[in-house]
């Protein structure tokens, strides 16, 4: 409850800051936001695009949040996405399987690729106490250059050196019925996998011994060890699952939303995953809604940019500012406490602060 | 072989300098006890500020003065930007890694947002940067002259002076020792009458100034255009800091290593002797070596003990 309020206040402050920025460059914030939300939600096709944009963010957000619960900061979701996506693309371009099996193998490839990429930092952390922030950043760049040379080397596109071959329509996550239902949107099966992942991760964290142990390691590593938990194994396992989730994000991005891989780009969804996790207070459900919000911001800014001259980077800026406020939530907590105190002093009622409406 | 080394050397040094100065900035911050993962963002803000300043002034003024003004503005912007991080991690006890990440995200997004609004394309080009020159007399010395004193930039010498100055300040002055004590055992430092909050603020602000300078040097020496990123150099600077074990000379060694490794990878295709090695190996080499170095150093890490922890005066 408290976390939700803090998140909502962060969002509102971020949106206000975005509005000020629009004013600063001489545009009207009201007009800007109207176009932004229209662009994201105006019709069924745009809603589909928004959901599709949110899908990889759900995965990377879950990935970061899951590692966070074990006290690990997985800043390498971008690299894990790249490798997961590369593995899935490689499978889709190499094997000639029937569609359900192919999709299944692609997903497994994504899980293995992303998981492997996070296993290495996890192992280094557990065995040598190497800080995961630096090692995952290194892994990001190794992934970046791996894709940079593997894609043109083995899966070169027909026209462009910088792109992989396009996947056949039936080997992507898109399905005709979804595309028709959302009137030509690029929404795809990735969304369903994302929802399933949210449910599974919520179950693991809240209902299983593994989840309990992972959280215990996150709260106090030494206490967990004293209680007889295998701390090192849990750290590796947590990174492995986190990486697998990010790898799935890569599958959703490169074989669902897109149908080819571009080289020379670290997917921004990896970094945004940190923001999603933070805003979602590291809970799977929170992550899901935070990802939806970011999906709205991202898919809405294109339309906004087309209608009035506001650069689309407004979305990233708003998200970044939201994260700054979420990171400094102490400030909001203090303000809330003050607010509560003055209220209870005034009429001796300490009822909960009224829920703010979704912005 | 000699000619190759001779050719590579000046480029490697040019590439090393921004890394070096940024890592030095990180050194001040981490030694004072604040982990600064926002170096990348601070570099970007400096790069943006200098590109914008020089772009704005280049029609109105002549000579290299505008370049130095550009550097100065970058330093100021870097400091201002780093205050966000300082406020969050010192006053509000925020998670320093998250706050630093937020700094990175804000810098990456905001600079491109503003640049796009100013130029339309999001890129800011400058018509003239620092020009390389041969140091008189010294460049005539055999071997060393060719390697170290030809095709050098004024900024290179400037940064080397800053390096020496930093080493001196950190190890020999009252302020430097106080700064380090805040990163090791802030409670004891406070008991000794040191204002931990103030010292940490200064540490973070120095990191902002130097990282801003690093970003600006990229633009004003070899890049010539602001494109909204510094291609992960800030993170590489962070790695150099660890690689160099939080010591100025160690950092010099680590950044030189990165400078050479990257330059070799970049020019490998035009040099027949190097073209036989698959480029992917050369490109990932520095990162793999860093990972290995992290493992090797993990046993005897010299990291400041209190880095990353919010300062709690009551803690025993």
From TrEMBL, chain A:
Alphabetical list of Pfam families matching this protein: BPD_transp_2
Keywords: Cell membrane, Membrane, Sugar transport, Transmembrane, Transmembrane helix, Transport
MF terms (GO), sorted A to Z: transmembrane transporter activity
Alphabetical list of CDD domains matching this protein: TM_PBP1_transp_TpRbsC_like
Annotated compartments: Cell membrane
InterPro entries with a match to the protein in the record: ABC_transp_permease (IPR001851)
Chief location category: membrane
GO cellular component, one term: plasma membrane
Name under which the protein is recorded: Simple sugar transport system permease protein
Automatic annotation (TrEMBL), chain B:
Transmembrane segments: 9-28, 34-54, 66-90, 96-114, 151-170, 201-220, 226-244, 251-271, 277-297
Pfam family, one: BPD_transp_2
GO cellular component terms, semicolon-separated: plasma membrane
Sections of the chain in a coiled coil: none
Subcellular localization(s) per the UniProt record: Cell membrane
GO MF annotations, alphabetized: transmembrane transporter activity
PANTHER family referenced in this protein's UniProt entry, alphabetically: GUANOSINE ABC TRANSPORTER PERMEASE PROTEIN NUPQ, SUGAR ABC TRANSPORTER INTEGRAL MEMBRANE PROTEIN-RELATED
Keyword hit for Cell membrane: yes
Name listed for the protein in its UniProt record: Simple sugar transport system permease protein
Natural source organism: Neobacillus niacini
Lineage: superkingdom: Bacteria
Membrane topology value: Multi-pass membrane protein
Keywords: Cell membrane, Membrane, Sugar transport, Transmembrane, Transmembrane helix, Transport
Signal peptide: none
């Amino acid at each position: 409850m408290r976390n939700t309020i803090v998140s909502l206040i962060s969002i509102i402050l971020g949106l206000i800051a975005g509005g000020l920025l629009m004013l600063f460059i001489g545009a009207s914030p009201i007009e800007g936001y109207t176009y932004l939300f229209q662009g994201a939600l105006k019709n069924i096709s745009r809603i589909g695009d928004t959901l599709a944009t949110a899908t990889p963010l759900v995965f990377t957000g879950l990935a970061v949040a899951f590692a966070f619960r074990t006290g690990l900061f997985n800043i390498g979701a971008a690299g894990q996405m790249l490798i997961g996506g590369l593995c899935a693309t490689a499978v889709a371009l190499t094997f000639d399987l029937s569609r359900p099996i192919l999709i299944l193998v692609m997903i497994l490839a994504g899980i293995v690729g992303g998981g492997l990429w996070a296993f290495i930092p996890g192992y280094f952390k557990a065995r040598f106490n190497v800080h995961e922030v630096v090692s995952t950043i290194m892994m990001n760049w190794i992934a970046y250059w791996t894709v940079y040379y593997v894609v043109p080397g083995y899966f070169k596109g027909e026209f462009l050196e910088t792109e992989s071959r396009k996947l056949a329509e039936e080997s992507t996550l898109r399905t005709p019925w979804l595309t028709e239902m959302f009137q030509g949107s690029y929404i795809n099966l990735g969304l369903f996998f994302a929802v399933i992942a949210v449910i599974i991760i919520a179950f693991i964290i809240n209902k299983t011994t593994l989840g309990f142990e992972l959280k215990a390691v996150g709260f106090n590593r030494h206490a967990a060890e004293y209680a007889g938990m295998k701390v090192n194994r849990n750290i590796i396992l947590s990174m492995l699952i986190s990486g697998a989730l990010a790898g799935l994000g890569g599958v959703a991005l490169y074989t669902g939303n897109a149908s080819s891989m571009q080289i020379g780009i670290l997917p921004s969804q990896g970094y945004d995953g940190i923001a999603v996790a933070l805003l979602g207070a590291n809970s799977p459900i929170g992550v899901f809604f935070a990802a939806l919000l970011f999906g709205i911001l991202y898919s809405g800014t294109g339309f906004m940019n087309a209608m009035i001259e506001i650069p689309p980077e407004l979305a990233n800026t708003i998200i970044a500012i939201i994260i700054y406020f979420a990171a400094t939530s102490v400030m909001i907590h203090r303000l809330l406490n003050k607010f509560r105190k003055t209220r209870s002093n005034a009429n001796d009622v300490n009822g909960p602060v009224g829920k703010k409406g979704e912005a | 072989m000699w000619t190759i080394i001779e050719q590579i050397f000046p480029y490697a040094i040019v590439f090393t300098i921004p890394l070096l100065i940024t890592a030095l900035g990180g050194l001040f911050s981490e030694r004072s006890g604040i982990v600064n993962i926002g170096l990348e963002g601070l570099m970007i803000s400096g790069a943006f500020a200098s590109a914008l300043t020089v772009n704005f002034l280049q029609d109105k003024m002549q000579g290299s003065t505008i370049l130095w003004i550009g550097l100065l503005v970058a330093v100021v912007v870097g400091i201002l930007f780093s205050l966000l991080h300082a406020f969050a991690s010192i006053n509000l006890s925020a998670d320093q890694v998250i706050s630093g990440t937020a700094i990175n995200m804000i810098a990456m997004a905001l600079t491109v947002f503003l640049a796009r609004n100013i130029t339309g394309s999001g890129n800011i080009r400058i018509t003239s940067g620092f020009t390389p020159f041969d140091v008189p007399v010294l460049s005539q010395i055999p071997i060393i002259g060719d390697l170290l004193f030809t095709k050098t930039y004024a900024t290179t010498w400037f940064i080397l002076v800053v390096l020496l100055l930093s080493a001196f300040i950190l190890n020999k002055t009252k302020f430097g020792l106080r700064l380090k004590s805040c990163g090791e055992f802030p409670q004891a430092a406070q008991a000794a009458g040191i204002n931990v909050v103030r010292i940490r603020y200064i540490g973070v602000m120095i990191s902002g100034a130097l990282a801003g300078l690093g970003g600006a040097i990229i633009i004003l020496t070899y890049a010539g255009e602001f494109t909204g990123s510094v291609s992960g150099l800030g993170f590489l600077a962070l790695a150099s800091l660890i690689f160099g074990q939080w010591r100025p000379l160690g950092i010099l060694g680590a950044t030189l290593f990165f400078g050479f490794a990257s330059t070799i990878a970049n020019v490998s295709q035009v040099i027949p002797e190097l073209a036989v090695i698959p480029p992917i190996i050369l490109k990932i080499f520095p990162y793999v070596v860093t990972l290995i170095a992290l493992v090797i150093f993990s046993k005897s890490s010299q990291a400041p003990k209190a880095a990353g922890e919010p300062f709690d005066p009551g803690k025993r």
